[in-house]
Amino acid sequence: MVPLINFELIKLIYELNPDIYEKVILNKTNEEQAKITLLIKHFFNDLGFPQKYSHMGFEKTITEKGVNFLGSSIFSEKPDFIPSEVELLPIEILNIDCIVISEHKVDLNCVIVFHNVLVIPSFIEKVIGIIINKIFSRIKKFIENIKV
Asked: pTM score > 0.85 for this model?
């Protein structure tokens, strides 16, 4: 089970949500490190909020219980394909803990801590929670529908 939990799975999570992400680029350094860039759809254009992108470095660690992905925003560079007016979503910590319960069951726990320069209105915080729930519901459904 653990060999299946890798950076391609993280990329798949984002690719299964084309209504949320315009573009997903994964650049693996090796099996333990990667960069992922996500161009997020412009959800709040009508409210005057800028479009966002995420550009993060990730480290994968095998643990006693499964696999952990720990990432944070890369502030020092902006990918060429990101338009100049699109702003970085400053993520201090993105921790995805994949705990293997059995051969056919994995518990995914995701913790996101935004950098303190980002002020999120409470209604947007609720929307972000709904979006994250949708993302993980889709990956669960995708995995359940795989015919072995």
From this structure: no
